Amino acid sequence: MTLEQRIRSDIEERIHSGEWPPGTRIPFEHELVERYGCARATVSKALESLARAGLIERRRKAGSFVAHPQVHSAVLDVPDLPQLIASRGEIYRWDRGVRRMALPSDLADETGIGRPALLIEGTHHSGASAFGIETRLIALDAVPDAAKESFLMTPPGTWLLSHTPWTQARHRIRAVAATGSVARRLGVVSGTACLELQRWTWRSGVPVTHVTQLFPGDRYDIVAEFKPGAQ
Amino acid sequence: MTLEQRIRSDIEERIHSGEWPPGTRIPFEHELVERYGCARATVSKALESLARAGLIERRRKAGSFVAHPQVHSAVLDVPDLPQLIASRGEIYRWDRGVRRMALPSDLADETGIGRPALLIEGTHHSGASAFGIETRLIALDAVPDAAKESFLMTPPGTWLLSHTPWTQARHRIRAVAATGSVARRLGVVSGTACLELQRWTWRSGVPVTHVTQLFPGDRYDIVAEFKPGAQ
DNA sequence: ACGCCCTTTATGTCTAGACATAATCGACAG
DNA sequence: CTGTCGATTATGTCTAGACATAAAGGGCGT
């Protein structure tokens, strides 16, 4: 491991652990030069790399600061549904289903969370009709505060967005036909083509939440933009 | 504009213009040092930045080479279907449909290409069954060589991946039901839930191709991974 | 109190080297 | 003809400086 990488990961570690929360001024370059006993160019390269990754923000004369949460550069976005529906000019409503239960570790394991979790089911409404349904697991070790929430008024996705950052996400998108109770909850005829979106999110490698959302094909689509090498 | 940025954009320009096609060895660092009359560190930073963006590949002793396009750092990937199907252990077959025609600018405009284009339709097969169908427009000003291709043996996506790089892509994903001739071509019953993937790609802001692909829900799903700041 | 200028200072860019490392390619032995 | 070894060479990482630049903050006059 090179010295530059060591400096970088040292700082990254302190940011991710919460030791240096957003807004903290990290040591000046000349202080890091002293700490690691190296040239300023080496420290500077490490900081530049952190700045490119969006973890810190550098300001002349002022120093370098831990960046405020995610302004993640929009690839496959994690949308806030209430906001999204409001921006379309519709009234949003969240309807938590009957199931809100704590799961033992072994059951949660089936979806890859692999730890004690909270299970929440509910429906997102746009105006008078159902917009989508979701089944969500929240890892209680990563987000202990979730245990105190009922999620009756606020959908869990919205609550999570403002209570915990994520550093990694995987999406899986499929087309499935809605049948039986699922079709009934969505208010569509059995066999309707739906978009199934599964999302896993992690914070520093630790699972945070897993959600499966189902949207009738005519009510939702995903747009993803990608520009490689944008500096 | 800094010297580093000038060196970077000079090289970028030659790659995008096609003057240095994929595989070309770009001048050695010491040659660039001579050309720009600067220190090696400056040239090296410019090349490092190009390598990070995936435009070039650097190899010790050998030099730096223009990267082959399809190594995009995977967010919403542009997959090569033949390769993807082969990796699943199935036999791939491409079946170009009857339509391969040049479109006047005004017709192409309807899909947002906005320029003379080539229209190609065809079916991707995996083993004995249809895997997906696609309808594609290729902008002839961006890819003039496409006019000479029949696309009978090679699907246009594969051909494009090895003939032209892209710098920007937009994806749109929906769930739709396959009906009529579409269902017949896919070999599914009418009403089957399908994933519709539309993709627009650009090279330096100029449209390259637009494709609409339709996959039966049980034969394809999209996985997108996102790690901010991954080097 | 307020606006203006000027000093200070941390980052931004760059130079001219050094040594490390890994891959290529030719020479040479089998 | 084939495989191994060593010299060569381009990139990788780093040092110890230099000067440029932008912005914070203090001092000054109004």
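Residues 2-4, 38-42, 45, 59-62 of chain B lie near DNA strand C (CB under 10 Å from a C1').
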